[in-house]
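Think of the structure tokens as a kind of shorthand, similar to the way a musician reads notation: each symbol stands for something richer, in this case the local conformation of the backbone. In the example below we present two proteins back to back. Begin with the first one, reading the sequence and then the tokens, and try to describe in your own words what changes along the chain.
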Amino acid sequence: MVKVKYPRSDAAMEHVVKAAADVLLVLSGGAKVDDRAFLELVERVVDAGVRGLAVGRNVWQREDPYRMLDALERVVFKQEPAAVALDG
């Protein structure tokens, strides 16, 4: 398992995933960003093949962390778009 930062482009993230081959990649959450931007990032990295998240700050420092957890569940496990998951 390797914890990785988002490399600032979806193409670069896809390259990292491909280069990692069978190694499990986990996204490092980085700095806290707004809800929609965070969920859109999660959606893109999951689509690229990242298999896990290490994003505590981006969950627990929210005004309503349980709402964010619910939205993450919808993005990661139900493949809902970030905008739908956040509003759902």
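Once you have a description of the first chain, move to the second and do the same.
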Amino acid sequence: MRMWVNIVVGIIAIVSVIGLVGCSVSHSASDDALHESSYYYDYIQPSFTEYVVATREWLVSNRNFISNNSDKELAMNMPSERGNKNTSRKAVLLVHGLGDSPYSFSDIGKSLEGEGFYVQTLLLPGHGSKPEDLMLPNYTDWQRIVDHYANLLKQDFDTVLLGGFSTGANLVTIHAIEQGNIDGLVLFSPGFQSKTPKLERLAPLAAVFIDGYKAEERNAARYTSAPLNGAIAYSNSAVKVRELLKDKTIDIPTLIAISEADSVVDPFAIKDLYLNRFNNPKNHMLWYGESEFTHDSITSLSMRLPDNRISTGSHMSPLFSPDNSFYGVGGEHKMCANSFDKNAVEACERGEGVWFSAWGYQEDGKIHARLTWNPYYRALEDAMSRL
């Protein structure tokens, strides 16, 4: 019953926020490019190095720091590059999801560097500073920055891959379809279709119910608050990628990693798109869950792992190694706010023994925190090495 009460409150919050947005002036209602506006910084730079410098200046002046370690927070939210761009002939551009940061690829980037890639990781406009800044960008701003830096990589490297998490996966897939000259895709929990596609244009219900509109910021690697405008930008990317995939197929090698219990996106709808619209013989899907499939390119990996106190995978769990210092086993950040059960959240925060799952998963006799690491990370690395 408590969950349904909170759902009603969440719906009321959506209506309230829609009213606020309708009465306010935001960049998203205009046709101006955000990077050319007077109230944001110019993130479309001639080179990635200049972009990193400009972004650092912006974040130093505009981020609402939540700890005493501002250097660490900056490092987690800054766009970054790894590997030797002067000797490598292959590169990959990585794009995070709604509300997240380049830290989403702290392990993936290192793994790809180990495969000889020069790795760039973007910070999408509106992110890394404060949640209110997500009221500034629209979908076009996000697509523009992805297109710009992907095209710069194509000028300098023989092989270019694109990788993305959730919303970021939508953006890189759209680029691959519309602009081409991409040699492969690495997609983590792609946001092609949410759990609530009919409501996507308002706001994905899962994001609103989990994060609310305004909440205390306690995670240096992502926003906890979720302004509606960011969800609408995500929605526009999801609608566009589905429209493109109605008429187009993707013929380059693609790896998709997704959890069956994902609380944000519809994994079965994404699996169907993968089977019907992605056609390369090197394609591979890592399915973290209990369903078994006859298609040879789908590998199912059980997430019922009692020895690890894991009940299910989550939206974010494919991304991180168990050794990650922030999100891994024994990492410094535990996501206790994993349901509407206040008692369970408080028990987790007191340090009582917990299990790990997707948001909202419940099981009698168990308290669940969010699963924030991938128990099969080595298998993921192996799959990436074969692209």
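Compare your description with these statements about the second chain. The longest strand covers residues 159-165.
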